[in-house]
Amino acid sequence: DKGDYEHFMLKEIHEQPVTIQDTFRGRISMDESKIFLGGILDVMPQLIKARRIIIVACGTSWHAGLVGEYLFEQYARIPVEVEYASEFRYRDPILEKDDLVIAISQSGETADTLAAIRKVRETDATILGICNVAGSSISRETDAGVYTHAGIEIGVASTKAFTSQITVLTMMALLLGSKRQALSASEYKHLIKELIQVPKKIEEILKEEHKIAEIAAVYKDVSNALYMGRGLLFPVALEGALKLKEISYIHAEGYPAAEMKHGPIALIDENMPVLALAANDESYEKMVSNIQEVKARKGKVIAVVTKGDKIIRKMADHIIEIPDCHEAVSPLLAVIPLQILSYHIALMRGCNVDQPRNLAKSVTVE
Ligand code: F6R
């Protein structure tokens, strides 16, 4: 049931304050100082001593995996590799007892991801699943796992499942960070608080939908678009570009902002919109220069910035503000305007938003 919404995708975008909360509900202690993930309790000793994490997934779930890579490395100090399931499965993966493999899949039925974990089964590595569909094949064939609790996702373009996957990965990274003593009790608590505040902050972004729709109207007829970000917002750039191409059929690519000058900047002219994700403090100055480089070549810049930003506001053609937050949770906020922008562009182009051409919700063929 779409309720008051015109499309399932729009409904699912708007559900995210609730679905993210559903994902962490009951998994954070009353005093907000600890995380409990019942589904991985049995394998906790293996997780605490894991030497390496290998994340396998496809599409949007693979983008969530890239966010996970930053989180596990930064907060739990565990080295991570993120693999396309389709590539991983056809290699001869080198896995050992203390390796931890995490399969991420909304449907839990993606053929390549399932085949990848069957391959891992032949080794001594521990396998975890992060799935949305309870009882799905991947959730059954893993040693342990954590459900995302995003509720059934109908729109073919994944939105709420993505933010719930990132919520689970954040909880896992913080929990392991604390158990492995990579995070102090106060840092742990502080980051948990930041996560708890995310749903409220997303509600604020959703209130700005009309402004994002105005930007969509300006760019609805373009043929190409670039997305750029750094650090935790680089995977969000990839996800933003994927959302746009899937449902509006506009050719879009995401890049780490620093890679622009190694090639893609050659594409910039007055017809090229560049979506710049500039909401993280760590790389703010660098993003400012990347935006200058695009403007110097007459590109159009739509920047996602932190509320109250003064510098980029003067340089960009359009800005979209998101509430101030800790960098660790910035992907959860920054992706929301990109989902909304893609939705409105696709709508204005007359595309079938919920069922884009050539795509299926669950890819059970290889
Ligand atoms: C994009 C999208 C796909 C899926 C991919 C993996 O919006 O939905 O890229 O993310 O097919 O699907 P799951 O997560 O079900 O394994």
From TrEMBL:
Keywords: Aminotransferase, Cytoplasm, Glutamine amidotransferase, Repeat, Transferase. It is an enzyme of class 2 (transferase). It catalyses: D-fructose 6-phosphate + L-glutamine = D-glucosamine 6-phosphate + L-glutamate. GO terms for molecular function: carbohydrate derivative binding; glutamine-fructose-6-phosphate transaminase (isomerizing) activity. The active site is at K361 (for fru-6p isomerization activity). The keyword Transferase applies. GO terms for cellular component: cytosol. Residues 43-183, 215-356 form the SIS domain. Its EC number is 2.6.1.16. Homodimer. Catalyzes the first step in hexosamine metabolism, converting fructose-6P into glucosamine-6P using glutamine as a nitrogen source. This is Glutamine--fructose-6-phosphate aminotransferase [isomerizing]. It comes from Geofilum rubicundum JCM 15548. The lineage of its organism: Bacteria, Pseudomonadati, Bacteroidota, Bacteroidia, Marinilabiliales. The gene is glmS. The chain holds residues 246 to 611 of 611 of the full protein.
